């Protein structure tokens, strides 16, 4: 397993380099000008100097090489300096946002906690609800609980977040006045009252996201459980006199979790990628809103770095899913 993991990590390096190159070239083809938001009163010669400072006038391959050096060489030095108090990165040019003129990674690090508070909690809530619901729905197939679960999951699949978000705002904020409609990213939790307010402003965005994720995971869990409940090894386990809870939770559940692990692992990067629609509806100052703002401003370094981080997370969690296969199913061996 260790050798397989090391091989996958080594092979992921050229894969990520190719992905970054493709993303960079596609962004180069996108229309727009990073200097479009500069006031018209700025003289043309000053604009040209600003272009050179931002690296806009250089050839695309030169810009790409500079970005690679900044991301893979300078940014790790910045992290080392922050952790150990050294000065390896002093005086070196980092990846700078064209929109804010500040380091891209500093902005991303500032936004990640807001995204984790909302999207991360929603994913955890969805997993804790979806797996038990999927298990019980499969075990009690066609029961009232199963039919109710199917109806709710159909709603979760069918209704998009840009509808459920405003609907919850109208009901719980405007009509009832129970919950705040805007997520306050400047709120600091330092006592019990501030913690309660944090929970209140998280309820609606978490509900919107958890509804979609729960609908997806519970259907996968139910389908996988139904596929395994009719297998021969289940009948053999029951014939041996094993208890029903042991058969379902130890034998059937373990094999049924293999496809579900793939869905969960590949969905985890979306926690760090943010929920673009939901964050914009509830004004959550997270990664999703940052990506939308950067796209509208044609902020190439910001968009490039965010999409590359998302690609890295997908590769890593895909590897984690493959490793978990071997732990869940003894028949799977990586030689």
- The rough form would be described as globular
Largest sheet: none
The CATH architecture of the largest domain would be Orthogonal Bundle
Counting structural domains, the number is 2
Approximately how much helix is present in the residues?
A: over 70%
Whole-number radius of gyration? 24 Å
Overall mean pLDDT score? 79
- How much of the sequence is in beta strands? under 5%
Number of H/I helices: 13
Report the span from N to C terminus: 7 Å
Decide which structural class fits the backbone.
Answer: mainly alpha
CATH C-level name of the largest domain: Mainly Alpha
Please provide the ordered H/E string of secondary-structure elements: HHHHHHHHHHHHH
CATH fold node name of the largest domain: MetI-like fold
Low-confidence stretches: none
Instruction: Determine the CATH superfamily of the largest domain.
Output: MetI-like
Could you tell me the number of beta strands?
0
Question: Care to describe what's here?
Answer:
- This protein is mostly helical.
- The mean pLDDT is 79.
- It has 2 domains: 17-84, no CATH class; 108-328, MetI-like fold, CATH 1.10.3720.
- It is globular, with a radius of gyration of 24 Å.
- The chain has helices at residues 2-29, 44-54, 60-84, 104-139, 144-158, 161-175, 192-229, 232-239, 244-267, 269-273, 276-281, 287-296, 300-328.
- Helices cover 75% and strands 0% of the residues.
- It has 13 helices and no strands.
Short description:
This protein is an all-alpha fold. The protein has helices at residues 2-29, 44-54, 60-84, 104-139, 144-158, 161-175, 192-229, 232-239, 244-267, 269-273, 276-281, 287-296, 300-328. Helix 1 (2-29) runs antiparallel to helix 13, helix 4 runs antiparallel to helix 5 and helix 12 (287-296) packs antiparallel against helix 13.
């Amino acid at each position: 397993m260790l050798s397989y993991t090391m091989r996958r990590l080594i092979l992921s390096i050229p894969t990520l380099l190719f992905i970054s190159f493709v993303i960079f070239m596609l962004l180069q083809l996108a229309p727009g000008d990073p200097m479009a938001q500069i006031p018209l009163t700025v003289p043309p010669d000053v604009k040209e100097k600003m272009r050179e400072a931002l690296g806009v006038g250089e050839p695309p391959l030169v810009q790409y090489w500079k970005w690679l050096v900044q991301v893979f060489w300078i940014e790790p030095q910045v992290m080392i300096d922050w952790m150990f108090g050294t000065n390896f990165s002093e005086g070196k040019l980092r990846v700078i946002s064209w929109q804010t003129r500040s380091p891209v990674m500093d902005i991303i690090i500032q936004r990640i906690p807001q995204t984790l508070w909302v999207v991360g909690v929603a994913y955890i809530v969805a997993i804790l609800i979806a797996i038990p619901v999927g298990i019980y729905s499969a075990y009690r197939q066609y029961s009232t609980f199963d039919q109710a679960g199917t109806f709710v999951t159909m709603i979760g699949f069918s209704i998009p977040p840009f509808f459920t978000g405003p609907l919850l705002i109208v009901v719980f904020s405007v009509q009832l006045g129970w919950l705040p409609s805007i997520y306050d990213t400047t709120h600091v939790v330092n006592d019990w009252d501030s913690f309660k307010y944090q929970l209140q402003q998280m309820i609606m965005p978490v509900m919107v996201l958890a509804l979609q994720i729960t609908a997806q995971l519970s259907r996968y869990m139910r389908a996988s459980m139904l596929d395994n409940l009719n297998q021969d090894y289940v009948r053999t386990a029951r014939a041996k006199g094993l208890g029903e809870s042991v058969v379902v939770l130890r034998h059937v559940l373990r094999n049924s979790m293999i496809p579900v692990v793939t869905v969960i692992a590949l969905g985890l990067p979306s926690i760090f990628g943010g929920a673009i629609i939901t964050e914009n509806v509830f004004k959550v100052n997270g990664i999703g809103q940052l990506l939308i703002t950067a796209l509208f401003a044609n902020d190439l370094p910001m968009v490039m770095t965010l999409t590359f981080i998302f690609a890295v997370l997908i590769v890593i969690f895909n590897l984690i899913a493959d490793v978990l296969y071997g732990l869940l199913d003894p028949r799977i061996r990586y030689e």
